[in-house]
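Let's practice the habit of predicting before peeking. Look at the sequence and jot down your guess about where helices and strands might fall. Then scroll down.
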Amino acid sequence: MDSIKVFAPGTVANVACGFDVVGLAMDAPGDEMIIRRSEQPGVQIKAVHGAKLSTDAAQNVAGVALQALLQKYDNPDVGFEVEIFKNIQPGSGIGSSAASSAGAVVGANHLLGQPFTPKQLVRFAMEGERLASGAAHADNVAPAIMGGFTLVRSYKPLDITGLHTPADLWVTVIHPQIEVKTSDAREILKQKVLMTDAIRQWGNVGALVAGLYQENYGLISRALEDVIVEPVRAILIPAFYELKLKCKETGALGGGISGSGPSVFMLSKGEAIARQVAATMDSVYAPLGVDYKVHVSPINKEGVKVIS
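Done guessing? Here is the structure:
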């Protein structure tokens, strides 16, 4: 096989209480990528459609992730060409850089005969995230590659596990058409937190994991609370608290800021409520004069997938 086309899903990172450790994958939106074997060693980004991103492999997250993979593959004669079709806007908070990083390494791994495990691919894709945000975090690339919900137990050493995904869980995401750079959103975070807030946050993360495995939607709802990061970042997102309140009144289990924003996600039990939540998001944002997009999706349990 000399060429492969993959779908790389959007992702929601942090998932309220799970800052930098919990993420989930969506069915839509997502990027499409074509990865080809090349006679020229190294990585070439041949084209990027739908976004103004560098085609210099050293300045493109897909290129950096692939370079990390090739370093471990240890064959100097291997090369790849990459063509990217961006459907996830950079700076959206729904894993644009993660999709490109994850799609590139999963596609290349298929072309090489799958010598690397999914968790090894996560490590390579994290290098793309390092370029994008200054931190090699895994809470977007892990669900993008592994699918479903994922938990990063540790970064040193890297220890990632998949979590159970209830069948009826859906996600609704509103993306205001403003850009919040991950690097900027990280700079405003407090470097120290109160012990009382930390204890509350730990309890919520544990409850979220338990709720997922028990398919206890009430427990999931109570766990979707962020007392550390959300209060700081909420100021970056128009009508955030009104949006969150009205979505919960509509029937959403809860939610919060997706990644570093500006997107906001809400989880719901079942498609019908998820679509009602989408209508509520419309009602809040339509009068604001801010362009936006709303996505309704089941949880993607597969992650990056080959489409041709």
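How did you do? Residues 195-214 form the longest helix (20 residues).
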